[in-house]
Structure formats: C-alpha cells, structure tokens
C-alpha cells in the first residue's frame, strides 16, 4: 500500500467545461454525489451531505487549499471519516489535487490524493483501498457528467 493515489482520464470536452464541473460547487455535487453548503473559496471550509446511495448518513468536510483557474484545484479532507464517535480533526488530512491540461481530444484530468502515511495505520489500511476505488469511480462520474451536459 502506498501513500499516494493517482488517477488520470481524458475527457472529450474543452478545459473550461471540465473546470466548471470541477470547481462550481453545485456541479461538483452532482457528479461527486454530495450536497455542499457553499462555494469553493481558498482557505475556507466547505461541508455537505453525501447523496451517494448507502452513504446518505455521512457528511463530507473539506478545506479548499488552492484554485488556479482552469488548471489546478486542491483541498484537504479526512478520508473515510465515517464513524461519528471519532474526532478526526486531530489527524493530519490528506491533500486532494486536481490538475487539468489540454489534450489532443479535449482535456486531461488528473487527481492525486497524498498524505496517507499521516493517517493511523488501522484507518489507513481501510481508507487507502476505499479511496483508490472511489477515485476510479469519481473520475468516471465527472467524465459522464461533463459529456452529458
């Protein structure tokens, strides 16, 4: 098991369109399946209720780290933080980075989640494979969302 997840896809759409789906909090919520309470603003915390079937009882919380128009979007969060009895705020969050670059057939989108080495070993053993599979699915979700619009 590593300390970093990286997934890359090609989306046959203009970079501006992919960027909009990624950074407009309402559109992000559509493909990520979370109802966020507000927009993405660097340095700000954003919370939301998951709408993914089977996970509707969970909340998502992230802190926006950086927004570089049409090329880079990053936030931190506590992966696999699903036990309401646990205070995850004492853990170092992972960093999620999205990078967009032009590609021959549209846009190349890469997501990187790093920092799993800072999560307690027992949680890391569950969080890493879940997020590895989760990012594979979410990359397909954003592609399908962009292409249907």
Describe this structure in words.
- The chain has helices at about 15-25, 25-30, 120-149, and strands at about 5-10, 35, 45-50, 60-70, 70-75, 95-105, 105-115.
- It is of the alpha+beta class and about 150 residues long.
- It has one domain: START domain (Alpha-D-Glucose-1,6-Bisphosphate, Chain A, domain 4, 2-Layer Sandwich), CATH 3.30.530.20.
- A seven-stranded antiparallel β-sheet has the order 1-7-6-5-4-3-2.
- The longest helix has 28 residues, at about 120-149.
- The radius of gyration is 15 Å and the shape is globular.
Task: Summarize the entry for a quick read.
This protein is α+β, with helices and mostly antiparallel strands and 149 residues long. The protein has helices spanning 15-23, 25-32, 121-148; strands spanning 4-11, 34-36, 45-50, 59-68, 72-77, 94-103, 106-114.
Structural class: alpha+beta
CATH superfamily: START domain
Quickly give the CATH architecture. 2-Layer Sandwich
Instruction: Describe the strand arrangement of the main beta sheet, using strand numbers.
Output: 1-7-6-5-4-3-2
Distance from N terminus to C terminus (CA atoms, Å) equals 37 Å
Order of helices and strands: EHHEEEEEEH
Number of helices: 3
What is the total tally of β strands?
7
Strand percent estimate: 25-35%
For the residues shown, what is the average pLDDT? 95
CATH class: Alpha Beta
| Shape estimate | globular
What fold name stands as the CATH topology? Alpha-D-Glucose-1,6-Bisphosphate, Chain A, domain 4
Helix content: 25-40%
């Amino acid at each position: 098991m590593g300390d970093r997840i990286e997934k890359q896809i090609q989306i046959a759409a203009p970079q501006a369109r992919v960027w909009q789906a990624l950074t407009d909090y309402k559109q992000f919520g559509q493909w990520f399946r979370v109802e966020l309470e507000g927009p993405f603003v660097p340095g700000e915390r954003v919370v939301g209720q998951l709408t993914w079937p089977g996970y509707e009882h969970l909340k998502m919380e992230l802190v926006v780290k950086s927004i570089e128009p049409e090329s880079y979007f990053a936030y931190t969060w506590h992966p696999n933080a699903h036990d309401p009895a646990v205070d995850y705020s004492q853990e170092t969050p992972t960093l999620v980075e999205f990078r967009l670059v032009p590609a021959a057939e549209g846009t190349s989108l890469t997501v990187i989640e790093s920092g799993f080495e800072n999560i307690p070993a027992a949680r890391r053993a569950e969080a890493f494979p879940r997020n590895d599979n989760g990012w594979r699915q979410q990359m397909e979700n954003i592609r399908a969302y962009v292409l249907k619009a």
